[in-house]
Amino acid sequence: VVQRILVVDWDIHHGNGIQDMFYSDPSVLYISLHRFDSDFFPHGSAGDCTKIGKGEGRGYNINVPWTNEGVSDGDYLYAFRKLILPVAREFKPDMIIVACGFDAAACDPIGECNVTPECYATMTAMLKSVCPKLVLSLEGGYNLEAIANSALGCAKALLNIKWKAGLVPEAASVQEYTTLPEAEINGFPVEHKVFAPTWLASPKWSPAEQVPECLKAKPSELGKDVVHRVIQE
User: Fold this and answer.
1) Could you check whether the bond before residue 42 is cis, i.e. omega within 30 degrees of 0?
2) pLDDT tens by residue, 74-127
3) Angstrom distances, CA of residue 225 to CA of 35, 55, 93, 100, 220
4) Torsion angle of C-alpha atoms 14, 28, 58, 140, degrees rounded to 10
5) What value, to the nearest 5°, has the Cα angle with vertex 137 and ends 132 and 138?
6) How far apart are CA 173 and CA 196, in angstroms?
């Protein structure tokens, strides 16, 4: 019987709908990592770190609001080490559901962040260590290569396929907004902008006995500041 569910939402947009559904429910712990700068969708205060739940659900809603674009592996893994994993282990979920958007991936033109496929795989493995009953539900993403490569990394982690059993997903190609089907994105007219990748993938997975490269990444000062503010709340 599933009595406690952890929902980890790493889509770059705040999951305000999920938050609303479980805001007073202590059986569901909702944790969202998302952009929270003024012009980023969804607008409003729902994604702030001060929104921690109400009534019996107070303390069971955690927002990690990145206040700018450009967050990367080091920031996400810092949040996992310092906040998400300790809280998740204390909560002891019977099941984990990941709202698995890949729009924080490197080369995504909307998220404008730099999370690598290896980092997505590592976060998946970290959550699996908390509870083996783990579901990844695909959400956002606006660069098809980035989505495919990140999903491949997560699938390998779910299947316990070691790094040396295949190739590292390649860095996504640069794409223009005009390659996307939407005429508008987040309510703004499409612009002809190009986002170059800021990282280069290794040609092969690291051997299983080596530490994944993303675990060596350092958090930015912005990332550390956000995580510490969330912990204080």
Assistant:
1) yes
2) 999 999 999 999 999 999 999 999 999 999 999 899 999 999 888 999 999 999
3) 14, 28, 27, 24, 9
4) 0
5) 135
6) 8
What residue type is assigned to position 229 of the chain?
Answer: R
Closest CA to 101 of 83, 84, 113: 113
* Residue of 99, 36, 95, 96 whose CA lies nearest to 71: 36
Beta strands in 5-140 (DSSP E): 5-9, 28-35, 61-66, 95-100, 134-138
Closest-CA residue to 51 (of 64, 36, 62, 40): 62
CB contact at 8 A, 120 and 154:
yes
pTM for this model (two decimals): 0.81
Structure tokens at 81: 């080490």
* Cα–Cα dist 93/127, whole Å: 10
Distance between CA atoms of residues 148 and 170, nearest Å: 10
Give per-residue burial for 61-72: e unless 16+ CB within 10 Å, then b.
Answer: bbbbbbeebebb
Q: How far from chain centre, in Å, is Cα 12?
A: 7
Question: What is d(CA 117, CA 106) in angstroms, rounded to the nearest whole number?
Answer: 9
Q: pLDDT tens, 129-142?
A: 999 999 999 998 99
